[in-house]
Amino acid sequence: MVNHDLVFLKRFSTIIAALMLLTIVLILGARALYLSAPKEPNTLAEQRTAERLQPVGAVYAGETGAAAMAAAAEAAAKAAASMVAYDGSLDGGFIYNQLCGACHTSGAAGAPKLEQAAWATRLPQGVDILIKHAIEGYQGSAGIMPARGGNPALSDAQVEASVRWMIDNLK
């Protein structure tokens, strides 16, 4: 009599051993192929690594750092100049409608509406003081004025134009 279980077990073991041997051969072949391929440098990865390894800051002192410091100041000035609100428009009415009106129309945070009565205590201070408060920000007993109306990209000239427009258009 033939023991069917023993025959099955021998065939199954042979198939498993053959599959394991095939797996090992494929792994070794893939490794040999990988190691024999020429390595091309990944310039993007090398560039990123170099950027990450650069120092966070630098010390600029005396003559040696003057040129680098001037270049950094120039780059900062260009960046600041490119961030002017409303394309540098000096139209006070436009700036008021885009930004200032949000508070000065509703009287939010104590902002004076465009009415003579609301500005009665502020106008005697003088236009220059009102412009200064609009640029630097101000907190008084009547309310709060955020610096540059809450938009740091506004230039001094834009803030001045909008304050003058508001004063000229009081009802």
UniProtKB/TrEMBL annotation:
<keyword id="KW-0813">Transport</keyword>
<feature type="domain" description="Cytochrome c">
    <location>
        <begin position="87"/>
        <end position="170"/>
    </location>
</feature>
<keyword id="KW-0349">Heme</keyword>
<dbReference type="InterPro" id="IPR009056">
    <property type="entry name" value="Cyt_c-like_dom"/>
</dbReference>
<dbReference type="InterPro" id="IPR036909">
    <property type="entry name" value="Cyt_c-like_dom_sf"/>
</dbReference>
<keyword id="KW-1133">Transmembrane helix</keyword>
<dbReference type="GO" id="GO:0009055">
    <property type="term" value="F:electron transfer activity"/>
</dbReference>
<keyword id="KW-0408">Iron</keyword>
<keyword id="KW-0249">Electron transport</keyword>
<keyword id="KW-0479">Metal-binding</keyword>
<keyword id="KW-0812">Transmembrane</keyword>
<dbReference type="GO" id="GO:0005506">
    <property type="term" value="F:iron ion binding"/>
</dbReference>
<dbReference type="InterPro" id="IPR002323">
    <property type="entry name" value="Cyt_CIE"/>
</dbReference>
<feature type="transmembrane region" description="Helical">
    <location>
        <begin position="12"/>
        <end position="34"/>
    </location>
</feature>
<keyword id="KW-0472">Membrane</keyword>
<dbReference type="GO" id="GO:0020037">
    <property type="term" value="F:heme binding"/>
</dbReference>
<dbReference type="Pfam" id="PF13442">
    <property type="entry name" value="Cytochrome_CBB3"/>
</dbReference>
<protein>
    <submittedName>
        <fullName>Cytochrome c5</fullName>
    </submittedName>
</protein>
